[in-house]
Amino acid sequence: MTSRHLALAAGGIVLAATLVATVGALGRPGAERPPAPPAPVSADEHAATIAALRPPKRARPVVAVLGYSGGTETTDYIVPYGVLRQSGVAEVVAVATAPGPLPLMPALTIQPQATTAEFDARHPAGADYVIVPAMHRADDPAVLSWVRAQAAVGATIVGVCDGTLVLAAAGLLDDHRATGHWYALGDLRDDHPATEWVRDRRFVVDRGVATTTGITASIPVSLALVEAIAGRARAEAVARELGVTRWNADHDSGAFRLDTRHVRTAAGNWLAFWSHETVGLAVEPGVDEIALALVADAWSRTYRSQAMAVTTGMGTVATRRGLTLVPDRGAEGVDRMLSPLVTERPAHALDVALEDIGGRYGRPTAAFVALQLEYPFAATQP
């Protein structure tokens, strides 16, 4: 056994111990599944949510999707950019806190279109919306300062998934209603008692601040923004193009919970270091970044595989909706190439990826990935 294998084994043991402790922690009061099904979102509630998301400044709003150069969640960043660019109803800018390539986690790298300083120079009145994804650090001073400054000049701030942690650290959620990823809600409730933490809603909007549940809530909240900006008909058209049938805030928080079966799956996959593999996703000019993000994110959460963007060309790749993707490598060093991406209705790419993951690593692994993404996949409970 090599030193690398020993390190992986040690890491797996630590991971297993951590997950077991987490399972126990999630058994505390307030984490149990609600005794009754969640109340559905009424037409009036949906209308009020959409009204609260109306553009605060411009008829054609400016949207900044903010990335932290120390690491930003893949789907949280790329999907809102892609959906809003697809809609054509806003000027959308991929922003980062520093120049140079922006590493996304757990996969992919992009070249941002502007730094925060460059964005400020171009838009001195500030953005209409700032999308804040989950970040490797929730308390980066440059991020917090910029988000607070944008809120102060009237931008609506949208925290996607653990972007909620950033908004909470910035003080924007005090005396507000908010939600977050199922795994973080317990700590958020303990650490930020001045916030009313809401379950059973995919996204919550309160006085200029929107927050969402886990990673895949990026799709419905983005479509809600399209509806708020341009009306129901435009949102329906974009949803059809993406392969999405509904985007209201209905959600069952109690369906997402880490239990011993997930712990066994995660620890077993991590410890099976001899079968870990690098999987390649072919990227060429015009690649659909929404499908790419969903698939790369899912395959990089199995604890068995890491997805890489593979190209036959040189340099960067321009995506379908205008992002600049920095490929990871050519095909050398990749253990296997994945099937071509679903691009006709790119939101379906995640379902295809989960089915493929289940076929390769077993349904419990697909369920564990869906749990991380807070996605209501049929196999979330293995």
Description:
The protein is of the alpha/beta class and 382 residues long. It has two domains: 3-27 and 258-373, no CATH class; 43-253, Rossmann fold. It has helices at residues 3-25, 43-52, 74-87, 116-122, 141-152, 163-169, 185-191, 218-230, 232-242, 260-271, 289-299, 349-361, 363-373; strands spanning 62-67, 72-73, 91-96, 102-105, 109-111, 114-115, 129-132, 156-159, 177-178, 196-197, 203-206, 209-212, 277-282, 305-310, 317-318, 324-325, 336-337. It is globular. The model is unreliable at 1-10 and 20-32 (pLDDT under 50).
What order do the helices and strands come in, and which of them pair?
Elements: H1 3-25, H2 43-52, E1 62-67, E2 72-73, H3 74-87, E3 91-96, E4 102-105, E5 109-111, E6 114-115, H4 116-122, E7 129-132, H5 141-152, E8 156-159, H6 163-169, E9 177-178, H7 185-191, E10 196-197, E11 203-206, E12 209-212, H8 218-230, H9 232-242, H10 260-271, E13 277-282, H11 289-299, E14 305-310, E15 317-318, E16 324-325, E17 336-337, H12 349-361, H13 363-373
Parallel strand pairs: 1-3, 1-7, 2-4, 3-6, 7-8, 8-12, 9-10, 13-14, 13-17
Antiparallel strand pairs: 4-5, 5-16, 11-12, 15-16
Q: Tally the helices: what do you get?
A: 13
Structural class: alpha/beta
Quote the distance from N terminus to C terminus. 32 Å
State the total count of DSSP E strands.
17
Using only CA atoms, what is the Rg? 20 Å
What sort of overall outline do the alpha carbons produce when their principal axes are compared? globular
